[in-house]
Amino acid sequence: MNSDKITHSRNFEKRPLWFKLLNDSWKATYFLGTKIKLDKDELIRSAKKVTGLDDLGKDFSDEPLEKLLRSVNEEADLHPAGRFITRQRFISLLSIRLRAEYFFRLHPEILEQPLYPAWIIIGLQRTGTTKLQRLLAADPDHRVIPSWEVINPIPLTLDEKTKDKRIAIAKTSVKALKMMSPGFFAIHPIDINEPEEDILLLDVSFLSTTPEAMMQVPSYADWLEKTDQSSAYAYAVKVLKFLQWQKPAKRWVLKTPHHLEFPDLIEKHFGEVHFLWPHRSIYESVPSFLSMVTYNHMIFSDHVDEKRIAAHWVRKTGYMLDKALDYREKANNPAKFTDLYYDDLIRNAGKELSRIYSLDGGITPELITRFEKHEKEHPHRKYGKHQYSLSDFGLTEADIDKYTSRYRQFISEHYDR
Q1: What is the b/e burial string over 169-190, where b = at least 16 CB atoms within 10 angstroms of the residue's CB?
Q2: What does 319-366 look like in DSSP terms, one character per residue?
Q3: Domain count of the chain?
Q4: Residue 321 — left, alpha, or beta (φ > 0 → left; ψ -120 to 50 → alpha)?
Q5: What is the pLDDT of residues 72-131, one digit of tens each?
Q6: Cα–Cα distance for residue pair 406/386, rounded to 1 Å
Q7: Can you give the CATH number for the domain in which 113 is found?
């Protein structure tokens, strides 16, 4: 690890006093019946009431939501604000699906169009995936999903004219996150107009790793890993078709580490894809991500065990990497992948972008100017330095090695690092 990483860097332990007082006061009133209920039928009724719609689609399944709610209620130990946020989020996801089905019926041409070709960024968390996607988003030929849109990809009302409302909701969400977890932005800066992960489209089917990155849901995570997720990817394609129908472009640029586990489903459902795979020392990316997950968990619970988080995600990281390498070796098609290294991307992004654009006829002077402008406006560590350490989580490099030996061999062969 870099020598400038300090040993005691547990910034995630710092909680805003007001947030603690709010939860303590709220919890003290539970005997009055103020504990928020998380029940599948009630959530669905609420979403139908909010939207005035009642069709979740013939391909909607209750089981993922039921499994997730059981895990949340029995294992996550949410504080009052965490329960409130979770309820609102689940209602929002159900509402998105209700509104999507409305538009699919109203405009059948949405689902008849082909999905654009896609560059899919599949690197591990904390390997430069966000930087890479946001740079590529500066290309006007690229369709991305900005933060305001990924929160609400379908218009809030049926007249389709709700962009301003969705932007306002995103701004409020960002302000709330800054208040609840002020250190989070040094890890992952959020800009409502910059792209975010399309894993949130999989959330609409309640089949994604988002919940286990936000709270303690081990039984759901175990069930998810053993469950066919084709339906989630198929529905994500439907939503992507809606988005490109609203705002056309030449190519999708999407990213989420979740896709490492499912490149076969990406190829099956997305069609013409090319994978961009950023890499970084596993001894840096893993503790950086564990720190981020711990921040996430503290937004939802007062009882966060960082060592338990580490045990789950170190194994999970190795599993995801092995799944991606399995696909890569089985497909035996190296031309489908472009590999990048984090340090190279940070030091000379232009050179790495030139390599990517060799896939599309080469980079133009106009694009270089756009990328340079983006770099100046979004400098590295704009919100401060993210400090983290393996020791924060009771880990050593040997603990990481146990699950990632195959990937480290891959890195050694490709980069001699």
Answers
A1: bbeebbeebeebbebbbbbbeb
A2: HHHHHHHHHHHHHT-GGGEEEEEHHHHHH-HHHHHHHHHGGGT---HH
A3: 1
A4: alpha
A5: 999 999 999 999 999 999 999 999 999 999 999 999 999 999 999 999 999 998 899 999
A6: 28
A7: 3.40.50.300
